[in-house]
Amino acid sequence: MVRPRTSMSAGCEPLSAAHAEWPEATILDFRHVWRHHRGMTLGFALAALLTLALGVRFGVHAVYWSRHHEVALAEWMTLGYVAQSWGVGREDLARALDVAPGTARKLTLAEIARASGRSEAEVEDTLRAAIAAAQVRPEAQP
To answer: Which of 31, 107, 130, 134 has CB 3.0 to 4.6 Å from 111, enough for a Cys bridge?
Structure first.
């Protein structure tokens, strides 16, 4: 007996007689899907989890930075935090402080002040001037 061609995947048997009559409903039983399409099921689950994680990360980032725009400078901030908050390039801020861009990646403003032999107030004043200069130049905007 020749079986009629359906939209089911090759090698998959219908779950019941009702499913054989209605081929679109063949993927209703998770056990069937897991048994016959384990790799695709794992791939879909991994893709769904990755999408969820990236979506949550994006949402948290968007909410956080929408509320922390142009925050007053403080000694605990890093150059990256200041750059993100004020919408200027990290390299512009590092150049203004005469710091190599890669070396000050995780240093706070207080640590940069100690390392350069300046006061925290001097570092903050220098950063304020660099922020003002970078915001005047449209090409410095990220």
So the answer is: 107
Q: 44: which 2 tokens?
A: 């879909």
pLDDT per residue as tens digits for the range 110-122: 999 998 899 999 9
CA distance 3 to 84: 63
Spatial contact of 95 and 105, defined as CB atoms under 8 Å apart: no
Question: Whole-angstrom Cα distance, residue 82 to residue 105?
Answer: 12
Q: Using one digit for the tens of pLDDT, what is the confidence trace for 56-83?
A: 999 998 888 777 778 889 899 999 899 9
Same domain, 130 and 75: yes
Helix (H, G, I), strand (E, B) or coil at 117: coil
Q: Structural domain tally of the chain?
A: 2
Helical H segments across 68-142, by residue range: 79-86, 90-96, 109-116, 120-136
Give me the helix-helix angle, 109-116 and 120-136, nearest 10°: 110
